[in-house]
Amino acid sequence: MRKILSGMLGLIMTTAVVGGVAYAAFSTTATVEGISISAGNAALEIFDSGHVSKAADWVTGLNLQNVYPGFQQSTTFSLKNNSTSAISLAITGQLTAAANWPNLNEAVEVAVNDSTNTTGTGWITLKQWNAAPVTFPGAAIAPNTETTYNVFVRVPTVYSAGTALAGQPVGNEINGLSLNNIVFTLTGTQQ
Hints:
- This protein has two helices and nine strands, in the order αββββββαβββ.
- By secondary structure, it is α+β, with helices and mostly antiparallel strands.
- The strands form two sheets. The protein has a six-stranded antiparallel sheet with strand order 2-1-3-8-5-6. It has a three-stranded antiparallel sheet with strand order 7-4-9.
- Helices cover 14% and strands 30% of the residues.
- It is elongated, with a radius of gyration of 32 Å.
- It has one domain (44-190): Immunoglobulin-like (Sandwich).
């Protein structure tokens, strides 16, 4: 019985090898040409409150002089998602440069709110804005739309938690100090 099974198995294998080698079929090809692929881009534009200036870079001319404990001022600006790709952009901001650093970096705080002041970042020191990107309030900006933000700058009367002088009054230690050429980099990231 064993010899019969071995013989049958040998015959099947030989037939399979010979049949596989001897098999022939027709084939043909077709060519697809003229394909183009181009990537779009992400583009973020910034406007001042009067929509006068529109660019990737905006020089605000914001010059806060003679600030004091209890000082507060605000301004408004808008961001437009002018991307060629159909993408929404989530916005973050980070302080990326300032002359005379670290003067006032724990005494000056900035908050960014949505246009109705319903949601916002809360008060964040310049030092914290410099340490890591801060997520702007609201949803990602849809393609070809703009979102308005209110920006508040203040010198609190008491240093905030997380600062070296937390809970202590802001006072003469800031007298005569200044920060110049402050740069915030706003980044729109695809969502």
